[in-house]
TrEMBL record:
<feature type="domain" description="AMMECR1">
    <location>
        <begin position="1"/>
        <end position="209"/>
    </location>
</feature>
<dbReference type="InterPro" id="IPR023473">
    <property type="entry name" value="AMMECR1"/>
</dbReference>
<dbReference type="InterPro" id="IPR002733">
    <property type="entry name" value="AMMECR1_domain"/>
</dbReference>
<dbReference type="InterPro" id="IPR027485">
    <property type="entry name" value="AMMECR1_N"/>
</dbReference>
<dbReference type="Pfam" id="PF01871">
    <property type="entry name" value="AMMECR1"/>
</dbReference>
<protein>
    <recommendedName>
        <fullName>AMMECR1 domain-containing protein</fullName>
    </recommendedName>
</protein>
<dbReference type="InterPro" id="IPR036071">
    <property type="entry name" value="AMMECR1_dom_sf"/>
</dbReference>
Length: 213
């Protein structure tokens, strides 16, 4: 995946376009067509995550993405704008009255690299994607690059938290996180990646689109 890919204001704006139109039961085909024309990277395939946050504290309101490396940005960003806003099972679907309090972030995922040692990555620089099996059950999950830095986690703590996010609670989980990671290492597959991230508040969206308050 090319390092030149950059998340843009247009990608963030189309997320708001899609969400508002969907909540108003308006068609979205023309929005996608315009995005395909306006966004210069629209025809490049790339994995994407879309994150919605709300309020001054920027509480998480939805975050879903895909590691699909075959679908172009022009299709996948509008699609996941809605999936993350309306279909994140951790939250109720976003409502129209919430839109003015939202901010959206688009993350383009690049530079996927399998690593041999699960702690061989940098907090704040790398996202991690894990896959492992325990007693015949398969678990997988990911944290975007900013998560570990925002939470103040080191590499081992990040991995233990990701085990839990994936649905697996390690035995004696109050142990030192590094011990847990060492125990899990033989069955653990870790891929690191980086991202280009762009964020936009609703107020910035209005200004970008020239929408009057």
């Amino acid at each position: 995946m090319s390092e030149r890919l950059q998340a843009t204001d247009e990608m963030c704006a189309v997320c708001f376009d899609m969400l508002i139109a969907s909540l108003r039961n308006e068609p979205t085909d023309s929005i996608i067509d315009r995005f395909l024309t306006a966004e210069t990277q629209a025809n490049i395939p790339c994995p994407v995550f879309v994150t919605w946050k709300i309020g001054r504290d920027k509480d998480l309101r939805g975050c879903i993405g895909t590691f699909d490396k075959t679908t172009r940005i022009g299709e996948i960003v509008p699609r996941y704008a809605l999936v993350s806003a309306l279909s994140d099972s951790r939250f109720d679907p976003i409502s129209l009255r919430e839109v003015e309090h939202l901010s959206v972030s688009v993350s383009l995922l690049t530079n996927f690299t399998p690593i041999e040692h699960p702690l061989d990555w940098e907090v704040g620089t790398h996202g991690i994607q894990i896959d492992f099996r325990v007693k015949g059950n398969r678990y997988s999950g990911t944290f975007l690059p900013e998560v570990s830095k925002e939470q103040g986690w080191d590499q081992a703590t990040t991995l233990v938290q990701l085990f839990r996010k994936a649905g697996y609670k390690p035995p004696n989980s109050n142990r030192n996180p590094a011990e847990i990671v060492q125990e899990m290492a033989p069955s653990l597959s870790v891929i690191t990646y980086q991202s280009s991230k762009k964020s936009m508040t609703y107020a910035r969206y209005q200004a970008y689109r020239g929408i009057a308050n």
